[in-house]
Structures are given as C-alpha cells and as structure tokens.
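RECORD TYPE: protein structure
NAME: Bifunctional NAD(P)H-hydrate repair enzyme
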Amino acid sequence: MNPRVNTAAQSVSHSVYSADIIRQYEKAAADQCGDAMYTLMERAGFSAFKHLSQTFGHAHRMTVVCGSGNNGGDGYVVARLALQQGWQVTVVTLPDAQPSTEDASSARDAYLAQGGQISVFDSSELPSADVLVDGLLGTGLKGDVRNEHRDLINAINASPMPVVSLDVPSGLNADTGMPLGCAVEALMTVTFIAAKGGLLTGQGRQYAGRVCVEALGVGEAFAKLAPKTDWVWRGLSDFAPLAARPQSAHKGVFGRLLCIGGNRGMAGAVRLSGEAALRCGAGLVKVHCHAGSVLQVANGRPELMVASEGLASALSWASCIVLGPGLGKDSWARDVFNQVLSFVIHADVPLLIDADGLNVLSEHLHKLKCTNLVMTPHPAEAARLLGTSTSAVESDRFAAVQGLAERYQGVSVLKGSGTLVSASDGIMICRDGNPGMATAGMGDVLSGVIGGLMAQGMRAGDAARYGVCLHAAAGDLAAESGGQRGMLASDMFNPLRVLLNQ
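PREDICTED:
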C-alpha cells in the first residue's frame, strides 16, 4: 500500500532548485531552445501580466516598482503590456536607477516607446492603483537590503494596494525564505524557470503569498542541464488515488496501530491520534494511556481499544506504534518511553515519535536503531532535538529537517507553514494547508494519519509524504466549509475520510 505520484501531473514546476542553480543554467537552457535571454524576459512579463489579470479582473490601474536589474526589466515588460491593454500605468524607480543590463535597458526603452512614463520615488506614498507590481530586487541580492531599497520596500508594504512580486518578493532570501533585513509582503509571486524553496515554507510563505511557477518555455531543457534535484513541491492532487480495497478484505489486513500517550490531564491528544488513524483506514487501533485518562479517551469513540496496563503485550500486537501525544515528562511518561524504546531496538516495528516523546528523546539519544522511524516535530521540538534555538530552525528550515533526518537516521517531518518531509530520497515541501490549522491538536491528528498509514503497510517515507499532504488538504477542505477561524483538530476527521475515498 504505497501511494503513487501522479506522474502525468508532474513538471519542472514541482522540482525545487536553489536560486544559484537557476541563474547558472537558465541561459544554457535558453540557448538550447534557441531563445535569447530577452525572449525569456518578455515571457516572464507576459506570464506575470496573465496571472494578475486573472486574479484582479476588475483592475485597470497599475503601479510598477522597477529596480535596475533584470527583475526591473520584467517589471517594464509588465508595464508595457498593461499599457497596450489600455491600463493606466505608473512606473516608479529610485533616483538614478538606470538599467544595469542590456536586456533591462531594452525592456525600459520598449515601455517608453509605448508612451509610458517613469516617476522617481521620493520617500512619499506610492501612486495609488488597483494593483502594485514589485520588480525591485531579484534573487541575486546578497546581504541586507540597502537603506534606499528599504524605504521603498516599507512604502510598498504600507500601501493598501495588493502586491504581485516578480520571481521573488524584493528583499527575501529565495533559498531560506528569510527577509534580508526587510522584504515585500506579496499577495502573489510569479516565479520563473522553477520553484525556489524559500518561497514555499516558513516565513517565506507569508511574504510570497500564492506562488505561481512559470518555466518560460525552457523548463524541460533546464531540468536536463541542471544538477538533478531531489527536492519537490507537492500537494495531495499530485498523488494518484489509493488502490481500491479487495472485496475479501477484513479488519485484520489493514493494520494494528498502538497509540501511546495520554498522561493524566492530557487525554485529548492521544484520542485525536487514535481517531485520526481510524479515519485513515487503520483496521484496529489500541490506545495505551495513563489510568486517569482511560475514560476520557474511550468516551464517545467505542471503536478505540483503550487500556492503561499490558503495555508489553500491546507492543507485541502492534504493526506500528505512535509514541508521544499527551505523554508528558513525568516518571510514568519516562517509564513508558524507555519500555517502548527497549522494545523497538529488538523488534522491527515502524515507530512514529511526536510531541513529548520527542522532548524525552532529545534528552537521551542521538540515533535510534529503528528501520522505519518517523519524527514529527514542530520548530521548538526540532530545536531541542538539534540542540539549537527555534529561531535558528526557522531561519533555515531545509537545513533543520535534513539535519534531523541525518542525526536520528529516520524520516523527519518539520511542521509549520509549508511542512517539510526529509527522507533518504530527498525533501518534499507540502503545498496544501492554511493558517486555520494553527490550533491545538492538529499535530496529534497528523501523527494518527501517518501512523495509520504506516500500520497498513506504507513505508515510512511514503506515509510521511502522503500523510502530510492528506492532512493539509483536509485542513483546506474544512476551511472551505466553515472558515479558517475557529477550526478544531477534530474538524479534520470527515474531510480526511472524504479525501481518502476520492
């Protein structure tokens, strides 16, 4: 039972590259296709204008902020196309911001020949329009944003106009998603050639807004020329549906999941994990919890088998173990943790560790002898596991998730906006999900989703990737029906079932 990626839906837009790799190979790709770099600039402007026209169908006034590099050249192309369509257009530049490349100069001249005008930014408000296009700084920015650019970026962010950024929001590190002193907050970013990781996770997702990838007609050539990447950007729609269940199926063939946690006063966490696993098709789910939590876990969900004793026999029974939701860190929790770890060292049983299970793990071990291990930390838990700070984890989420996978020799899931999954075959960035999912218990549901899939025979890496996308898409479906604010973790159960059966 391993999910298949829908290869028909895959393209270079699903592959993630560093900004340096894109800069190194985009010209060679253009040359191979017989295209001049100015042709790519024209296509970039055209694709950006197409996306913003579709998004802002009412718009007829545009302010375009252009820098001196090729990012500004893209902006001049957008401005010219808008003029040709009868829009009112104002281009804003910094004083003495002459184009620094031949292509950018050609794009500016074509805009002026169309009757366009250029205004100089004087630290006041930007000209009012229906939409603002950010073509100030591209991916080549090194070091913090200079003062004159900072003032213009602050003016963009202070403006009520919706912002469309070209290639990357000005001031944002395209690889890490961290602002270089400051960065434009865009509603949408149209990025070129291929996806850049910094736009897709953590803070970068906030700055970039909705990301549209345009390969500019050279995507296939670029993918062949550039070094092979094992980083991908996926959502649930990129996976083919799971295979139909056989008519002769019975509950015994769909796995036996053991969820361990639920210390006194924390019954809800392990209950959410257990029910999520059931909703994802696990045949049998047992919960081992503190004696003081048995009634709370079992109440209202008779399909769960709940006990506070007999852990050794439950471990031997399980085809997968989820350890940590609501576990706590007291003596009961540590005794349970040690018993589980002693068991999995000698038994080849898939193990998922979450929540307090990760916090206890961070105090003791740096490697587990477990062939099918998944860890699902949020940034603070990841920081404890890596012996660093939460801010350090968030400043380079890719390095953090990869470091976790390497240190603990397992699959690492770094939760948050644009959740990351690092396995032996690369890193996946989840495209789905929304801010309404930032609520108590969502991580416990994710543990149950992935654990339930592993219990049914899915390999650890496959279960983590598919489970993360399934969980995020369920959150989007729940938000569509009831809105983001006020979403509960338990609101995920019905959407999970719906999505799994599509």
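COMMENT: The chain has 18 helices and 19 strands.
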